[in-house]
Structures are given as C-alpha cells and as structure tokens.
Design brief:
The protein is α/β, with parallel strands linked by helices. It folds into two domains: 190 residues, 4-Layer Sandwich (Metallo-beta-lactamase, Chain A); 132 residues, Rossmann fold (3-Layer(aba) Sandwich). It contains eleven helices and 19 strands. It has a seven-stranded mixed beta sheet with strand order 7-8-9-10-11-18-19. The protein has a six-stranded mixed beta sheet with strand order 1-2-3-4-5-6, with no helix packed on it. It is globular, with a radius of gyration of 20 Å. The two termini are 34 Å apart. Bound molecules: zinc ion (ZN) (2 copies).
C-alpha cells in the first residue's frame, strides 16, 4: 500500500486516515499552508503549523485546529507526521509522512529565495517526493531579492519625486508582506488596502517585523494629500479599477507576480510596471529542492507538471505527474488568494469591506 494516494477528495494517507490539503470536506485534514486553494472550509479536524494559526482563524473561524511547531512529530493512526519549513508564506510547511520506515514528503507550495517574513525552506529527505511545479519550465528564473527590491525602491523613489503615489498590486497574503519587509521604508509612508492590513496583523502577531503601515479607508483627508503623493500603496489585484483607487489620483501602478516574467503580462494587467516576484520556486529552485530530497520517485503537481516530470525522467528519476484534472476543472488550478470572510473584512475597516474580497485568480 502506498503511503499516499490520490482520492476524489484529495491526497490521502490510508495508514493515518487523513488527507493533505483536501479539496472536498473530510474528517481529518493536514494543511501545508493557509492559501485558499490549500486550506478549505468544512473539514472536521485540521492539523497545521503554528505560525499559520492566525491566518487560518481569520479565514476559517472557530474550527478544530491542532497547531504544531516545525519538526514536531505527531502520530496519526499508523503514520508519523511532521511539518517542515517550505519558505512560501507565514506558517507554510512541507508534510513529511512516515509509515513503516517509508518516507513520503509533500512540499506544498515552496520557494528557496530568502524571505524575512517566513521561516526558510529546509530540504527534507524522502523516498518519494510530491513537489509543486507551478513554474516548472526553464524560462522561469527569479532575480535575487535584493535586486528585485532595489528595482521597486527605484520606481517608488521616482514616482515620489514627481509627487505621485506608487500603487503596487500584490496578493494580500504573503506577497504583500514580503514587499513591505523588503522595500526601503524611508522613501515615504506606506499605505495598505484593508484586505492587506488584515493579513499584516497576522504577521505582526506571529512576530514578523513589518514597517509601520497606514490603512486607506474612507475619503482621504486634505491634510494627508501631501503625504499620499510620496506613498507606496500596497493593494490586492482585486482593487484594480475599483472606486477605492480614486483616493490616489495620478498614481503610478505596478503588478508583482512570477507571471510578469512572460512577455505581455504587464500589458494584459494594464499597469505601468511589472515586477517579477513569486512565492514559488523557479526552475533552478525546483531542481535544487528535488535533488536535496534524495527522492528516487517524484510526483509533480500544479502548473507545468508534465514538463518537469519529463525533464526528471530524462535525468534518470522515476518521475510522474499527479492527475489533478478534477481539481483544476473545479477550482481553476492554482489560486493564491485567500477568500476572506466578509465579517473579518468588515472588522478591518470600510476599505476592506467594500473592495477587499479577492476572487480566486490564476496567479502566483
Ligand atoms: Zn500558496
Ligand atoms: Zn498553491
């Protein structure tokens, strides 16, 4: 019997009778992280990493969640389960499952690039590795973060010199906080959309240092206008072309996403600038993580799974894809934005409640 197998509700462990990131309601769910396409409502019991708790509580409400630290082993039925840093977002984890001496590791979403807002990725040795492959093509290669943030700072400084705000669209959970932690906060004030600020709170509660932020809600007061002209504004993509933007007239705008590496992506988003920034491993990162696992069998899932599996087979590995066809048809594949409950948004302020609900999006 395999340690993990694909069932209609998701990835299942028969020895422990639990699922990992299931997409249909199940009794027992082990979560890799709190993004919406991994952490769904409706499960009986949840197991997740401790740092993910704040975001999960915000999204799922008062459900039964067992929170564990990285590397802490739990026995579930006949399986030994532990969570290990994935470097993707706050509280993101790879799931290590050991049954009768055989070790399978599910990476969930991960990246190897340094990111001060979450615990760095740690390779975990495995017999079988199930890896994400969102950016599993050789064209995807991320620049070092210092270069990326220097680019963002330069753009922000340039706009501020012209007396116009800089709006950067980024996913509210993960990418937005990475921008906050990475930019030079001395350039000007930082203003966040309510949906972003809601997640900022979870990060600060978990002990992650972020620069001071203001929330843009209600009509901008005249006294704030001079400061707003120097501001960096961090907003979720769903805020684009909403009335919320009227408080930042003449603003320069940009989109931060791994897809910005592809020609034409910036134009399709109709923004001035595209910053190539992803929460996922690029091609060299995927290969490095797979090699470090020591796994002889690899399953690729999400994105360019077939391309990655083909490449790995050529390198002598037993590599396959997981057929997530039903999942992709139902949920549109990779969705990176948590759908926040309306009540939580209302608590975060009027800006969040009016423009904060982010629909699922095929972005990363
Ligand atoms: Zn994710
Ligand atoms: Zn994902």
């Amino acid at each position: 019997m395999a340690v993990l197998e694909l069932r209609p509700a998701g990835l299942y462990c028969p020895a422990g009778d639990f699922y990992i990131d299931p997409w249909r309601p199940v009794d027992r769910a082990v979560l890799t992280h709190a993004h919406a396409d991994h952490a769904r409502r409706g499960h009986g019991h949840y197991l997740a990493q401790r740092d993910a708790l704040g975001v999960l509580r915000t999204r799922l409400g008062p459900v039964a969640i067992d929170a564990v630290g990285y590397g802490e082993a739990t026995v579930v039925g006949q399986a030994r389960v532990s969570l290990h840093p994935a470097g993707h977002v706050l509280g993101s984890a790879q799931v290590r499952v050991e049954v009768g001496g055989e070790v399978w590791v599910v990476t969930g979403d991960y990246k190897l690039d340094p990111d001060p807002t979450c615990t760095p990725f740690e390779p975990v040795r495995a017999h079988v590795l199930i890896t994400e492959s969102t950016f599993g093509l050789p064209i995807y290669r991320w620049a070092p973060p210092v270069r990326l943030f220097a680019e963002i700072d330069e753009w922000w400084r340039g706009n501020a010199a012209l007396g116009r705000p800089s709006i950067v669209y980024a996913y509210a959970f993960g990418k937005a906080q990475r921008i906050l932690a990475g930019v030079d906060a001395s350039i000007g004030p930082i203003v966040c959309h309510g949906a972003v600020e809601l997640l900022n709170r979870c990060y600060r509660d978990a002990g992650v240092a972020l620069p001071p932020t203001q929330v843009a809600g209600g009509p901008a007061r005249n006294a704030d206008r001079a400061a707003l002209a120097q501001a960096l504004v961090v907003a979720p993509p769903s805020a684009q072309s909403t009335p919320w933007l009227r408080r930042f007239p003449e603003a320069g705008d940009a989109f931060a996403s791994g897809w910005m590496q592809v020609r034409g992506a910036r134009r399709r988003r109709s923004v001035d600038r595209g910053f190539v920034m992803s929460d996922h491993a690029d091609w060299p990162g995927l290969l490095r993580a797979i090699e470090a696992s020591g796994a002889s069998r690899v399953y690729a899932t999400h994105g360019y799974a077939a391309a990655l599996a083909r490449y790995l087979c050529g390198r002598g590995l037993d590599a396959r894809t997981f057929d997530t066809g039903e999942f992709d048809a139902q949920y549109g594949g990779e969705q990176e934005e948590p759908a926040l409950p309306q009540d939580a948004l209302a608590a975060a302020g009027p800006a969040a409640a009016t423009a904060g609900l982010d629909g699922p999006s095929a972005d990363a």
